[in-house]
Every structure is written in structure tokens, then in C-alpha cells.
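Hello Y.,

Per our agreement to keep a running log of every chain we model this quarter, I'm adding this entry. I've kept the format consistent with earlier entries: sequence first, then predicted structure.
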Amino acid sequence: MSKLPKAIGPYSPYRIAGNQLYTSGQLPVDPETNELVDGFEAQARQSFKNIQSILELEGKELSAITKLTVLVSDLANFATVNEVMEDLFSEPYPARTAYQVARLPKDALIEIEAIADLS
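Predicted structure for the entry above:
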């Protein structure tokens, strides 16, 4: 069984260009069930876990990430994003942009995309 959730459209979960790896937005979908996990913190952790699985396919770790884009359905959950990131990353932290959006696919509470350095 794949360590990555099944794509919900005509896109790749990631692409490599030069020494950069670009992920698609990773929804908090458990790859074993292809269903969203429950709760905001669990969803944030699952999105990062999906990114980590992508990086592992290329022999890299979360520390290779240079830039994150975080989409959330409610910025009231932003402190939780920071807490999860503090658990998963150490300095220097990735650069990050965060947006509150009206709605995400599958009614997810969060979606995260990453750019990682493969050199």
C-alpha cells in the first residue's frame, strides 16, 4: 500500500525541478483509508506526515523544507499550527506563508504545501 494518499484530481503529489522538490497541497488524508483524520491538530500532523512521506521517497527529511504554504479554514487554529511545527522542526525553521480560506477540498481544516532543497 502506498504511503501517500490517492490524488483527488489530475495532479502529481510532487514534482522535482533541478534541486527543488515541490509538493502539491497535502490534505490531512490518511493514506490507508483515503479519509480525513478528525480534529484540527490531528489534521495538521497528518498533512505534515504526508509531506514527510514524500520527502522520504527522495531520501530527505522535513529539515530539507525551505518554504511552506499553510491554508487553514480558521486562523483561530494558527497557534496549533505553530505548536505542531515546533514539535516537527528546529531552527532554522522553513519560511512560511499562511492564509485563511473559505473552504478546502473534502472540507479539510488545513492543507499544506512545501518546497524542499534536494541538494
